[in-house]
Every structure is written in C-alpha cells, then in structure tokens.
Amino acid sequence: MITLALSKGRIFEETLPLLAAAGIEVTEDPEKSRKLILATNRPDVRVVLVRATDVPTYVQYGGADLGVAGKDVLLEHGGEGLYQPLDLNIAKCRMSVAVRDDFDYQAAVRQGSRIRVATKYTTVARQHFADKGVHVDLIKLYGSMELAPLTGLADAIVDLVSTGKTLVANHLVEVEHIMEISSRLVVNQAALKLKRDTLRPMIDAFASAIPA
Ligand code: ATP
Ligand code: MG
C-alpha cells in the first residue's frame, strides 16, 4: 500500500492533475465526505487528509509514504527525514512582510527601532530580519495574521500573499517580498528504498505533468 498525504483545499485540487498523470484517480470527494482516508482507482494507493502543516510530519515518520507540502511549511518543519525530489509548481504565492498602510516601515527600519512582527512563520521571519540586521520581537500566531497590525498586537506581519486582496481589504500594504512559494513533493526516505518499484514511476509521472 502507498499512502499519500494531502491537505484539503488548494493543494488537494492542484495535485489531482498530477495524480491523473500517474493514472491515479481519487474516487471520493473530500468536500462531500467526512472521511480522512480516501480510496483511489488503484487498490494499492490511498490518500490521507491532514492539516497542511502536518504533511511533513506524517511523511517523516512514515504515516504516509509521500505528500505534498508548501515551501513555507517545509521551511518551518526543517525537512528532516524527507526526500524532496520535485518542486510541483502548484499552490503558488509569495511570503511577504506587510504593515498597516499608515505605518512607516522604512522609517522604523532606518531608525533601528525594534519592530513587533506577528507570524505563523517564525523560522523564516527570524532569518529574514536577522539577515537585514533589523531587531524584531516575534509573536507566533496560527491564523488571521492580518488582524495583528489592526489591533495593535504587532507593527508588521509575515504572511503568504497571492492576489493581495486580503491585504487591501484590511488596510495593509506589502513592504517586502521575502520569497516565492510553491508546493513540493516530499517522500519518506525509507519508503523510497523499500517501495522504490512503485514510487519511482509515480514520481516520474508527476514530474512529467508539472505545470509551467
Ligand atoms: P488552514 O487553512 O487549515 O489553517 P493552511 O492555511 O496552512 O491551513 P491552506 O490555506 O490550504 O492551508 O494552504 C496550504 C498551502 O498552500 C500553504 O502552505 C501554502 O504553501 C499555499 N498557500 C497558502 N495560501 C495561498 C494563497 N493565497 N495562494 C496560493 N497558495 C497558497
Ligand atoms: Mg489557509
């Protein structure tokens, strides 16, 4: 049995065409069922639905043989025990610094003030500000980062942006672009050796179907 870990939503949706290229069709709709284990047309392949941030953990410990996870999630996880053979070029967005539209970020940085930054991505944020020599107090959040500058919890946030509409709707502006984000295929290192005959052709089929 091959177990593939996916998160519901955009990663699930954008992974379907890659699975199709490997001849794999998920036969249940995660939005319509409460099942956490989904069957496919192949009796030897199943999909498990986990939180996006839990995908690397499932694959690392062998709860799943392979999975799809965002670069954001992988950088926070650290990538230990994971083989990362492919950038799938799906679920694309960017990681950025954003502030309230009336906050003068450049002046705060120039003055060397300590900046309070709220984020789910503390590892990436810490590294980013250390590289710039900016002193920050990081506040770990698990969601709705946009709210932090509006309530006075923080001066800035580090968050994922795609269209920028959520920022605009909350009177926030992007002031720095940290990195481009896309999702990657992650494979359990032991599984790759033990189940190589099944996994290798799957990985090759995914590679052939990566969107431009
Ligand atoms: P949850 O919504 O359950 O709290 P999550 O926000 O991590 O978890 P998703 O919103 O489905 O889950 O995001 C999954 C992955 O998709 C992220 O880790 C990131 O790589 C990517 N992603 C997040 N936001 C966007 C976006 N706006 N556009 C494109 N890709 C995104
Ligand atoms: Mg989300």
From TrEMBL:
Keywords: Amino-acid biosynthesis, ATP-binding, Cytoplasm, Glycosyltransferase, Histidine biosynthesis, Nucleotide-binding, Transferase. It is found in: Cytoplasm. Its main location: cytoplasm. SUPFAM superfamilies: Periplasmic binding protein-like II. Residues 51-206 form the ATP phosphoribosyltransferase catalytic domain. GO terms for molecular function: ATP phosphoribosyltransferase activity. It comes from the Bacteria. Pathway: Amino-acid biosynthesis; L-histidine biosynthesis; L-histidine from 5-phospho-alpha-D-ribose 1-diphosphate: step 1/9. It catalyses: 1-(5-phospho-beta-D-ribosyl)-ATP + diphosphate = 5-phospho-alpha-D-ribose 1-diphosphate + ATP. PROSITE patterns: ATP_P_PHORIBOSYLTR (PS01316). Lacks the C-terminal regulatory region which is replaced by HisZ. Belongs to the ATP phosphoribosyltransferase family. Short subfamily. Catalyzes the condensation of ATP and 5-phosphoribose 1-diphosphate to form N'-(5'-phosphoribosyl)-ATP (PR-ATP). Has a crucial role in the pathway because the rate of histidine biosynthesis seems to be controlled primarily by regulation of HisG enzymatic activity. Heteromultimer composed of HisG and HisZ subunits. This is ATP phosphoribosyltransferase. It comes from Ideonella margarita. The lineage of its organism: Bacteria, Pseudomonadati, Pseudomonadota, Betaproteobacteria, Burkholderiales.
